[in-house]
């Protein structure tokens, strides 16, 4: 399985297998997870994002002017939780930055946070609790991916990806940019469909299963080249 993932990764980022192993493929999966989780937070938790902090800052400004359906008490906890998760990623004990062990640890902790959010959603828990759990997980993810710095695969932000797609000549980066955009789109489609028609908990269960798969599938080449 790891060999197959590495082959897919090498298609996305030619020559990357020796350096990144299966990580490019797994980062595409995390991009899908981001779409699912942001669909949950926006549609089910009061018009707030837990991965897109640009949107939250703007929503916060809108809420201060009295915009309908927006609340200061949605955006602020999301931003604070995201920052706490990013801060925590830098302090994971016993796992050097940029290694596959660190990546697995982050995916594992994020899965734990998402599982807590799924349980809270099933129990019809307070929305702020879910926002905090999910925001913290996305902060962890974003900080870990930022350290790895795999080209065009940020997992949470598509602005520069879309800009590069529009301004650069078609070439090797085009495929991974399109793949990243498609992963976010498909994640948002699945997350919104589950949230609206099955319930928030089911969308979070999907995200949880994918995170567990990512944690289990990270391959060894990253360990040798980033330690």
Quaternary structure: single chain
Count of DSSP-assigned helices? 11
Let me know the average pLDDT.
86
Number of strands: 0
Helix content: over 70%
Give descriptors for this structure.
mainly alpha, 11 helices, 75% helix, globular
Could you please describe the fold and organization of this structure?
With 227 residues, this protein is mostly helical. The protein has one domain (21-226). It has eleven helices and no strands. It has helices at 2-12, 17-20, 23-44, 53-64, 72-89, 100-122, 127-148, 159-167, 172-197, 200-217, 221-226. Helix 3 (23-44) packs antiparallel against helix 7, helix 3 (23-44) packs antiparallel against helix 10 (200-217) and helix 4 packs antiparallel against helix 5. The longest helix has 26 residues, at 172-197. It is globular.
